[in-house]
Amino acid sequence: MSHDIRPFVFLPAHNVVVCTECRFGYVGDEVETHLNTAEHVRRGAPERRGIGDGVRRLAGVFLTQGQLRGLRFPDPEAAANPHLRAAETGGLACRRCPYVCRADRWMKKHCRTEHGWVNPRGRGRERARAAGAGAGGGGGGGGGGGGGGGGEEDLPWRAGVRC
After folding, report:
1. pLDDT at position 151, please?
2. Is residue 11 classed exposed, middle or buried when 0-12, 13-18 and 19+ CB atoms within 10 A define those classes?
């Protein structure tokens, strides 16, 4: 039996659904949440539930992020899928699992909840690391870095991945 899952299309070769309006792939359990975003808020709750139920009934669709470990990536020489937007390089990839996202906030939350990561910087504004660091005395002020003294290699994720 066919289920109306519009605006999604099912990609059986990859076991995921793609929103044809956003051109982004999702697992089944994320469909209703996606439809609750500002771009799709015009759909009422019963319609969102119906679409989500239809997607979850598709044979072979991945329902959870954890199932993405079994994702079959297309051959690099294959033509781009017209349902998906072109890959971008601004992604963040977890070093411990296949999770990928584009926002620091979500990656930090993922690392905390899934892997027990604790941000060594703590909360709030960075404080001076040494007495007199801001008084013009060789405190090494200047650029970059997100504080904490370490570099990107200390983070439990990699930046700049294709997504």
Report:
1. 59
2. middle
